[in-house]
Amino acid sequence: MADHRIIAVDLDEETIHWRNADVEQERRVAIFDLLEGNHFEPQRAYPQGYAGPYRIRLRVEEGRLGLDIFSEDGQRLETLVLGLARFRRSIKDYFAICDSYFSAVRQATAQQIETIDMARRGIHNEAAELLIERLEGKIALDFDTARRLFTLICALHIRG
User: Fold this and answer.
1) Which terminus of the chain is more exposed, N or C, with fewer CB under 10 A?
2) 3 touches 144 (CB < 8 A)
3) Which domain holds residue 145?
4) For residues 52 and 122, what is the distance between their CA atoms, to the nearest angstrom?
5) Which residues pair with 55 in a beta bridge?
6) What is the value of pTM for the model shown?
7) Is the pLDDT of residue 87 over 70?
8) Helix, strand, coil percent content, the chain, rounded in steps of 5
9) pLDDT for residue 108
């Protein structure tokens, strides 16, 4: 029986060079939310008809996203490599708006925070749609799963 979901996420610790408390909290929430509910359905047929659940590992190498997919027992099923050039603008914009949001939470009015948060969600939503598009034919995702994966992709791009 198919179980098209992610049960564990590992981020390549060598890729993440620097973290602050706000971004670290966002990463933890994204992983928690992702594991609580997701749809992740690789389109390739795996040995013995394996159809989930999945463990994944995300990493960035030479400007590309590496997405390692493993079975529940840790057997590597495949590695997808996805160029990140089309995501650079979204990642840059997302970091800029997150910085504004985290600053606003400390000193702005509720209305200002809400305005910034709406912009942040808009950038996040556009990036999620792009991720779904880029994975078409490789992995079927739902929108919420794509949003949370985009957050984790951003976590891999943090530089000190």
Assistant:
1) N
2) no
3) 6-155
4) 31
5) 8, 70
6) 0.83
7) yes
8) 50, 20, 30
9) 77
Using CA atoms of 36, 130, 56, 70 in order, give the dihedral in degrees to the nearest 10: 120
Nearest 5°: the CA angle 16, 130, 139 is 80
91: helix, coil or strand? helix
Structure confidence by residue, pLDDT tens digits, 108-144: 788 888 888 788 889 889 999 999 999 999 999 999 9
Does residue 160 sit within a domain? no
Count the helices and strands in the chain (H runs, E runs). Answer: 4, 6
Q: How many CA atoms lie within 13 A of 43 on its CB side?
A: 8
Tracing tokens 């209305």 back to the chain, one arrives at 111
Is 133 part of any domain? yes
Domain count of the fold of the chain: 1
